[in-house]
Amino acid sequence: MGTLSKHFYAATRDKTCRDMLHPGHTCWQAGQVYLWQGLIGAMRHYLPGAVTALLFRMNQWDDPRVWMNFVAQYARCIVAGLPMTAGSFHFFCGFYNLLGRFSAPFFVFIPSFLGACTCMFLPRPIVRAQGVGLLNMYVEFLIRRVRGRTAETLRTSRLIGTIMFGVFSAAMMGALQYLQIDRVWFANVYKESVTHNNNKEDCKIRYCSHHPTKPCWQHILIQVKRSFYFGLAICLIKNALPRITMLFSSPVSFLRAIASRFDYGLIGFFTGYKALFEIFNCCLPTKVSSITRSSIAGFFAGTSYYFFPNYLLFTYPITELMEVYWLVYMRSDLPKPALARFIDRLPVVLLAYAFSLGMMYHLRVVYPYYTNRYCHKLMNIGTTGRSEMLARGYAEIMLGYK
Fold first, then answer.
1. Of 138-147, 338-347, 383-392, which range is least confident?
2. Best CA proximity match to 8, nearest among 121, 81, 102
3. How far is Cα 356 from Cα 127, in angstroms, rounded to an integer?
4. 8-state DSSP, 189
5. Mind listing the pLDDT tens digit for each residue in 286-329?
6. Rounded Cα distance, 202 and 195, in Å
7. Are 369 and 71 in contact (CB under 8 A)?
8. Nearest-angstrom CA–CA distance, 397 and 8
9. What is the pTM of this model?
10. Distance (Å, rounded) from C-alpha 273 to C-alpha 172?
11. Do residues 297 and 281 make contact, with C-beta atoms less than 8 angstroms apart?
12. Which residues fall within 8 angstroms of residue 10, CB to CB, at 6 or more apart?
């Protein structure tokens, strides 16, 4: 399909948006359907993100304000997401009718990019989480697209992937220790604490923050249990939400589907990462510097990737490292040219979200074999099946069936 896209201009010479996107309906009739289906798509698309944010506040569920905030943020996501789930297809028809025929790289990208421009009204954690996910999918596309024997070996070798993920993890934990911040990662670094001895401030790293109240083995066991429960919750949300209607129509089939499609490897990754990180943080000599300690622990914790080799998991630290090391650079004493200060003021998260969304819709339609099934499912859920219809219409035109 990617090769055929070079002939898109000639193939669509006598075609309209009705042939590709809404056969059997005029643009006005299709627009009404888009609005209703976009509302349903927004409800389904933003529910996992809202529920995941709620999971991080599990210990505050007895507070009514937590649930009120959840409902308010979810409603805000639905309203602000309508231009993406519904408006992007209105933009498609308008763009096609106003500007006429156009090349394949723009016939999906521009309408989707315009539909994502209202992401500034979405809650920032949702924008960041989904923007990172979409950008990771684009990085995965680039990895899949690279040709050559070396690239093929890197794609298929679990051992090489595990070592590379360990290196990424070591770089991430070392940077987080330097910055002394917590991010959405698989473990948290130890913070610096200030103690007063003989009226002198002595800044120390709390390598074992549990001492003297708990021994190391008990602390590690508690952290591993928390990580296991978190991974279990993620797996349940991932498998249960797309099949929630089966719970009412066929509970037995629902339970069978959950059990058969459960990601035990993902739970093993979450549990193994946390366990290895805490073990090495407790066991390494105290003479080791805090950044070196976190880097070593992060590398060995990253070897748990072997339990769950996955493209999305592999690309996640790549995009995170770009942002974290930019923070390291901006907080360092290195010179900051005017260009760096200008880039630092840009709304990079919003631009990355809009660009990645437009690009993923484009790749889903034009390069379907280089995008994973998760991307197909995500686009299908958010658009209530219209992305599949658009991809099918595009393929039929390019193959000469229309």
1. 383-392
2. 102
3. 12
4. P
5. 777 888 888 999 999 999 999 888 888 888 888 889 889 999 99
6. 5
7. no
8. 9
9. 0.76
10. 13
11. yes
12. none
